[in-house]
């Protein structure tokens, strides 16, 4: 978890890491809420201090903020809530005065409620870059399900790319062979980031004149001409989304106002 804020003097964005913890067990929404609240409490990050929390589009994250997120209430509604709270506080004080010693001793046996026991998360914002990552991957899945010819070429080309990525990631010897023949170091994609697949396919196309020699040397199936042409078209059609993702992933110069112009 990181925190971002605007310096009131220089108007520059500042970034600082807050926590990097191991998440044990299933990543279900209520456990996510507990972890976020725990980190907020450790750094005394109360809701008025937090403008928004940005996360990916994972269903567990979305559900956590949908159920426990802070509601966007008008000022009049907030005032009404404060008035109601004041009434309850006064009633509680009066009730405590009317209690006898036996009743008070019984209540002392129960733990008092703490602020941290009331789970409420800040306003939520889904990461626009992560949404862009989902667009090409989902469109590809639709194309594969609707077109058998596309599916065959796509699956064959991607399987051969994955074979060389996986082998080079596991074997230093394979990396040496790749580097010796192509003159470039092999790359491998991150499974959760579509843009890394785009970059890795681009790297393969940069050495397309020698990639089949690498595949033969490593004992892998070579790329056919139609599969190479498919990869070229894949990169050409995906380039605008890849460039938009790269532009919006910046830390210092990326703001809310950059999103809509980048999309259009």
TrEMBL record:
Q: Which domain of life is it from?
A: Eukaryota
InterPro entries named in the record: RNaseH-like_sf
Cross-referenced PANTHER family, in alphabetical order?
HAT C-TERMINAL DIMERISATION DOMAIN-CONTAINING PROTEIN (PTHR47501:SF5), TRANSPOSASE-RELATED (PTHR47501)
Name the record gives this protein: Zinc finger BED domain-containing protein 4
